[in-house]
Amino acid sequence: MRFTFLLMAIAGLGVVPYGIYQILFPGTPGNVVMLNVRQRLTDSESFDEAQQQVAGGKPAKLLLHAQTGTLVVQEPNAIRRVLLRLVNAEKGPLPLLVAGVVFALLMFKILGDIKPGAPFTAANVQRLRWLAVLLLGCEAYQRVASWGMQNYLSHLAAPYTDQLLPNADFGTSLISSGLTAAILVVLASGYQRGVELTEEAELTV
Q1: Are 91 and 19 in contact (CB under 8 A)?
Q2: Which backbone phi and psi does 181 adopt, to 5 degrees?
Q3: Which residue in 50, 61, 107, 109 has the most C-beta neighbors within 10 A?
Q4: pLDDT tens digits, the chain, 205 residues: what are they?
Q5: Counting beta carbons within 10 angstroms of the beta carbon of residue 15, is it exposed (0 to 12), middle (13 to 18) or buried (19 or more)?
């Protein structure tokens, strides 16, 4: 299990430099930026209509609520171009790729420090806390990036872009991320207590 996380980290370290290169030296001409977007379908059938059709004997009914695509725009501002490419990178948002590498390395170190007879270490307490901070940082990034992309799309001069939504990776739930971070903090506190008890036992002996 431990070396699975090591392999994940190595794979991520191979992808991150490629992502950085694509952001700094994209294959697009001039100031062109490509954005991952989706558009709601206003003429799709309602749930009631689909339910009636299936109840009437139709085997199944697929309802399409949105269509995805790539919006190609010109962005004259160099800093804004880099930020847009960070969020819309081909291999996934670069900040989340970096976070994945950090997560895998932390898990590799945590599992490596768990030894028979000595499961609690001060280093693992700190690593669990860093995992909680990493998770909340990813959630904060996704909320800010989603808001920024939506704001950018709504202010483009091109027609219909105000009806588009970002289609980058912003899918996690704030509640689930918060609960997971809270669990990690509790685990870190339990580990801290385990370290203290181990030290007290050593002093007693």
Answers
A1: yes
A2: -65, -40
A3: 107
A4: 778 888 888 988 888 888 888 888 888 888 999 888 888 776 667 778 878 888 888 888 777 777 888 889 899 999 999 999 888 876 678 888 888 899 889 888 888 887 766 666 778 788 888 888 888 888 888 888 888 888 898 888 877 777 788 876 554 544 455 566 667 666 767 766 766 666 666 666 5
A5: middle
